[in-house]
Structures are given as structure tokens and as C-alpha cells.
UniProtKB/TrEMBL annotation:
It comes from Xenopus tropicalis. This is Protein kinase domain-containing protein. Residues 1-239 form the Protein kinase domain. Signal peptide: none annotated. It holds the Pfam family Pkinase. Coiled coil: none annotated.
Length: 297
């Protein structure tokens, strides 16, 4: 849902979360808000402006990415030019490394959750399934994510770490560069699971050799050998044109222009956000409501 602030008409995206009976999703709502506060420290992660609530709903106001999602872009273009793939994937690398350095695993990385700003930069979004406090060789467990982007260790119900995000990144990178999904997703869930667990990733014959090497390292079945957790991914040949320091600071301009996709749904037009007082009651989640400093001016 889109909304605007009454003071300066700034457009924001509103995520609406239904509070489940007996507040069964209280912890997941709080976790997403916490991760979004951490994300505010990096240019390639979606930023939260405010969080507020009623008795039955939780609302998170985030920056509006008018370029749409990577899924939208791939649906339109099928696959991207090499310079776009390098630029977007490098920004994703920066964003993921920032999250992982703070003990956060995204756990649901996919094109739907990669947004594009009006300036043409990546914004990793949707931290509803994220896991916190997983550092170094620590592991977690639980069936999280979207099956097509799940790492083998998740599908096999094994413990896992940040390597699951690098697997998903490899899948997305392949789709960006080739328009192909590298495993069997045409014959049902069982065939998909078997393909991910047992088969080698397949890419078109015309895929650039530098990219093939990177994909092979990202899509290794053994998590401990996977690029991202083993080796310095920034030093791979595919990224040899990237000035990482400039990119990390958000100063590297996109080598292309995007058409902003600013189509407001009729039922969202005119929706405004007001700074109402924090509600109280039995269904109110303590510690959830928040306003970033710039909204308090």
C-alpha cells in the first residue's frame, strides 16, 4: 500500500500485518521491525521510516522504491545486460555482507524482495522471515523461505547459517543474467526438491565464463564450501570492474536509467500518514511503535 506524509507529501510504502489470534505472530512482527532498524545503516537495504499499530494490525512505513521489484524487471526484460547484472549483484553483495556482519540471515531472498529505487539502486526488502544472532559458525534451523530459492541444507531439514542467502543470491544472479532457473522447476515440488539436492545447476551455453565460475561457487551443495562464507566474493573476476569502496558508500551511479513505475492504485491515492499517539490495549505490542528521527522534525 502507498501513502504520503501530510507535511511534505513524501511517498512511502506501507506494509500491513494482521495480528493473529492470541498474538501468535508477535515475535515475528517485532523481529522484522528490529531488522529494519538495523537496515537503516546501509544504502542497499530497505529503510523503515516508522512503525505504528492498532489493536488488530501492525503497520510498517518504509521508503518507496518507485523502480518496482527485480521480479517486475525480469518479467519485462527476461534477462538483463551484463553491466546491469554486475551492478545490481554487487550492490546485493554489499547489502548481504552488512546483514551477515550483524548476525542477520534474510532467509527469503528472491526477485520479489529485491526492490529498485528511483535512482536505479538495489534495495533488499521484506525481512519477515529473517533470523537474528547467527554469527560466524553459529547455525539455526527451521523451514523458512520460498522453495525455488531454498538452499539444499534447508530442504534437507539440516541446520544452516548465512550460506543459505548466498545460495539464493546465486539463483537470482543466474536469473538476472540468463532468464533461466538453473534447476527443474517444471515438474512439481518433489522434482524441484530432488533437482536442488542432487543435480548440478544448468546454465545456457552462452553464459559468460566469468559468471559461470561465480555461479558454480555460489551453488555448491556443501554450505561450508559456498562462496560468500568461503573465499572473498568481491575478488572474483566477474566483479573486476567494481570499485567496492565507492559502491559501498553509495557513490557509484547506475550505468543506466530506469523508468519509474509510479502507478498508484486507486484505492491508495490520497492516503496520508499522521503522527497519532501510540494506542494502548491488550493487543498492543510493546516496543514496536517507532519513528525515525527525520520524521520527528
Amino acid at each position: 500500500m502507498l501513502a504520503s506524509t501530510p507535511t511534505n507529501s513524501q511517498q512511502v510504502a506501507i506494509k500491513v500485518i494482521v495480528k493473529k489470534p492470541q498474538m501468535a505472530n508477535r515475535q515475528s512482527i517485532l523481529r522484522e521491525a528490529r531488522v529494519l532498524r538495523v537496515a537503516a545503516g546501509h544504502p542497499y537495504l530497505c529503510h523503515m521510516h516508522a512503525a505504528f499499530q492498532t489493536q488488530n494490525y501492525a503497520f510498517i512505513a518504509m521508503e518507496f522504491a518507485s523502480g518496482g521489484s527485480l521480479k517486475d524487471l525480469l518479467k519485462k526484460e527476461h534477462h538483463l545486460k551484463t553491466r546491469q547484472v554486475i551492478f545490481y549483484s554487487a550492490e546485493m553483495v554489499c547489502g548481504l555482507q552488512y546483514l551477515h556482519s550483524r548476525g542477520i540471515i534474510h532467509c527469503d531472498l528472491k526477485p520479489d524482495n529485491i526492490l529498485i529505487s528511483s535512482e536505479g539502486h538495489i534495495k533488499i526488502a521484506d525481512f519477515g522471515l529473517a533470523v537474528e544472532h547467527v554469527f560466524g559458525h553459529d547455525t539455526t534451523c527451521g523451514y523458512r523461505g520460498t522453495p525455488k530459492y531454498m538452499a539444499p541444507e534447508v530442504l534437507a531439514d539440516q541446520r544452516y547459517n548465512a550460506a543459505v542467502d548466498w545460495w539464493a543470491f546465486g539463483i537470482i544472479l543466474c536469473q538476472m543474467a540468463t532468464g533461466w532457473y538453473p534447476f527443474d522447476d517444471k515438474h512439481g515440488d518433489a522434482a524441484l526438491r530432488h533437482s536442488i539436492l542432487e543435480n548440478r545447476a544448468k546454465v545456457p551455453a552462452w553464459t559468460p565464463s566469468k559468471l559461470v565460475i561465480l555461479l558454480r561457487k555460489l551453488l555448491r551443495k556443501k554450505a561450508c564450501n559456498r562462496y560468500g562464507v568461503k573465499g572473498n566474493i568481491r575478488q572474483c573476476l566477474f566483479f573486476d570492474s567494481i570499485d567496492w569502496e565507492t559502491l559501498e558508500n553509495g557513490r557509484l551511479p547506475p550505468p543506466f536509467q530506469l523508468e519509474a513505475m509510479q502507478q498508484l492504485a486507486e484505492n491508495n491515492e490520497g492516503c496520508q500518514m499522521n503522527n497519532d499517539s501510540v494506542p494502548t490495549g491488550v493487543n498492543i505490542i510493546e516496543g514496536f511503535s517507532y519513528q525515525c528521527p527525520s520524521w520527528q522534525e
